[in-house]
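User: Can you help me understand a structure? I only have the sequence.
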Amino acid sequence: MKGTDILREINEEDVFRAIKELYTQCVGGYACIAMIAGPVGAKGMTNGSGDEGLKGDYMFASESAVMEALGFDHFEPVLPGEAIIVTKTKVTRRKLIETPEWRPCIFEYVYFARPDSIIDDIPVSDARLEMGTKLAHTVRRLLGDKHDIDVVIPVPDTSRIIALQLSQVLNLPYREGFNKNRYVGRTFIMPGQENRRKSVRRKLNAMHYEFNNKNVLIVDDSIVRGTTSSEIIQMARDAGAKKVYFASAAPAIRFQNVYGIDMPSRKELVAYNRTEDEISTILGADKVIYQTLDDLVDCCKKFNPSIKCFEASVFDGNYVTGGVSKKYLNTLESQRSDSTLHSQTVSPVASGISNIFEDS
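Assistant: Let's start by predicting it. Here is the structure, written out as tokens:
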């Protein structure tokens, strides 16, 4: 038979059966969109349908912001174990797995997602406002009501919403103390410590008049390696700050990510095997304050109570898919370490890991 004849014989049941079989063989979280003689969305993250001007149009994307920009006005999550088939005449969605776990990556809401997006029915901006409120309560608990903070300053851009809400809860002035160069990329995924350090200085410039002779609370979305945070703290001191407190909207990151975020090995994470006092000393801060994991979960769960758990392995080391052995993590670390990346001219390709999911 010709290829075109085979394509014409494919029907919805064939596609649903194939996807269901895929679920039985693939472990982890994934989303894909395929074209089979027309648009087919299989476990996309967000499904958008058009308004009157786009009636009959459908779009699938990881965030709602891109669909809204194109004129779509109705969004709903594509649930775990679900597939949607869009043809010229109809839309069919089917739940292929009866009891799938719904565990969205909580780091999306802290850092990666655009604030104007809605992911899994959770408005990102609202979740970050809640993070600011919760973090403010933690600051007050650790520093007391009679703290000596003069001003709250965000690290642009993600933490602006969080810092603004925190400042209002604590009744403190909010100031923009850093000017950002938008043409420097994300520094925590850059290879090489020296390269990351220099990139931070190119990326941010401290405004002296906002720091001089003040006790400042700097708010960031998270602390990964600590390179960015330590440089920012030093920049604040160079600009004349008397004391520098550093607050993170995310809990301490102590474990590497295995679900698609290019995080370094555990030993390159500043919080790995360290107390908060030790982290403060390494970063050069008067005190480092972390959001608690329970508070972060509450910030997101508030807007979608049907999500019972979140994927938070970088914070608690609980890999939700199971089967992530020490051998697998060690192999992953050997590929992601600075020394390995520095010695290669291209990104490393996984090799020799056919049995890495077996317990070591």
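Now, to help you interpret it: The longest strand covers residues 72-77. The CA atoms of residues 30 and 38 lie 21 Å apart. Let me know which part you'd like to focus on.
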